Structure formats: structure tokens, C-alpha cells
Amino acid sequence: MSDVSPAKDFIAGGFGGVCTVVTGHPLDTIKVRLQTQPTPPPGQAPKFAGAWDCARQTVVKEGVRGLYKGMAAPIVGVSPMFAVCFFGFGLGKKLQAGEKTNAELSYIQLWNAGMLAGVFTTVIMAPGERIKCLLQIQADAGSKKYAGPVDCAKQLYREGGIRSVYRGTALTLMRDVPASGMYFMSYEILQRKLTPEGKTRKDMSVGRTLFAGGMAGVFNWMVAIAPDTLKSRFQTAPAGKYKGVGDVLGHMLKEEGPQALFKGIAPIMVRAFPANAACFLGYELCMKFLNWLAPGW
Description:
Blueprint: H1 6-36, H2 51-62, H3 72-97, H4 107-137, H5 149-165, H6 169-194, H7 206-236, H8 245-256, H9 265-293
């Protein structure tokens, strides 16, 4: 492991986060709309037949811009969120490496550092996710309640104070802590396996970096999909509908069965590879620039 610089991780992670949002937001919109569509009455078909039908209906009714609804919130939140995430991962590695700056961390240590990153991001991620989900589904409700992310945040605060803005924080933690562990661990493992013999990760080609980042995103969502569905349901439900995490899960299993936990998995997996490939490529390119600009930092 090369010298760890949490400060450089912070800057490079922020740049990687912007790359992620721009690449993956349209499929994220489809995912949220599939996860939160109302349960159809017996004998009737659901509103969306699948990911492709959801995308088609969205474009027909709202134009291509409909796929980018709610993007302002994650753009504003994602850059600092990814910055904090990569900072947390860098800090986790540094804490476990101790004085041995060139030591190679074990897979469990990489997992632990990734989980620390998940804890770090929740403070920013939870309100941003709530606002994003509400903006993404409001077109399906038939009325435009929120004018934008700032208006949404103001209304949530007026309705229930800071607790309303941070509704779903526990579920965000349940999703992001184990998923972030898998995310960073799988990326680092693939980086090691794909580095040519006798070379370092600095010599990795763009194609191999894209593959490692993309697959890390896929592994991340294999862990995150079920708690993410619960989170989306809880954050977009009317106040008082659910008592907590167990109540959301109970309602979903009773009314829709276990498969409901995996709604939206198709657009998630289609989005996961390119979005996270873009994230890690942006991160690695920015890190190379920072190492060139300030090698001793």
C-alpha cells in the first residue's frame, strides 16, 4: 500500500462523486420510481411493467429532463459526500496501517475501512436521499408539491423539523455501512489482481480501472439493494404510515412478497457499472494529478 493521504482522498473522492451522478442519475430515477410505485389492486397490472417501460413513460410524459429530476440535490450533496466517503476510507486505512505506511492491508481491514466510510457519509447522505426520492416520484403523484430541492427541504423542515429532513437515517446506515465495506474492498482486490506483474497500480490502464470500478459498484449494490428499497419506501411514505424499519419490511412482505425488496434491481445493475466506473476513473485521475501537483502532501 502506498502512502495514504486522507486529504487527497477527500479531494479526489469529491471529483469522482460528480462523475458518478452525471453518469448514473437517469437510471437512479427509474429505480426509485419502480421501488415506490403503488401496489396495484387485485387483477390489475402495476403502473410500470419494468425498467424499460418506466423509462419510456417518463420520457413520453416529461421529456428526457424527467430522467434528471432531483439531480440538483445529489450534485450538491454528492461531491462533499463522496469526498467524505473517500476521506473516511483513507482514514480507516491509515488507522489500521499505523506506522507501516507501505504495508498491504488484509481484505478484512479494507472491509473495515470501507464500513467506516459508510458511517461518515450518512450525515450528508440521509437528507439528500430523502429530498431526491421525493422529487423523483412527485410527477407520478399527479401534482407538483415541491419546486425544487431547496423548496423540498424547507417544506420538510416546516412539517416536522430536522427529524423530518433526516427521516430514514437508520435505514441509510443499514444500507451504506456494509455496502461501502463491500464497495471499497472489492475495488482494492480487483486493483491488486489486475495490476500487471512487476508494476504498481499507478501503471494500471484506463480500461482496467474502469472495469475494477464498475464491478465494485455491482458488488456494492448486491449488498445494498434490499435496505435501499426499504429506505425509499420509508422516506417517501406519508408521515405516520410506518412505525419504523420492521413495519416497512412487514408491510412489504405481507402485501408483495420477498421479491418486493429487489424492485428496481435491473436499472440499479445497469447503472452501477458505468456510474462507478466513472467514479473511480475520476478518483484515480484526480489522485494522479494531486500526486504530481503536491507529491509530499
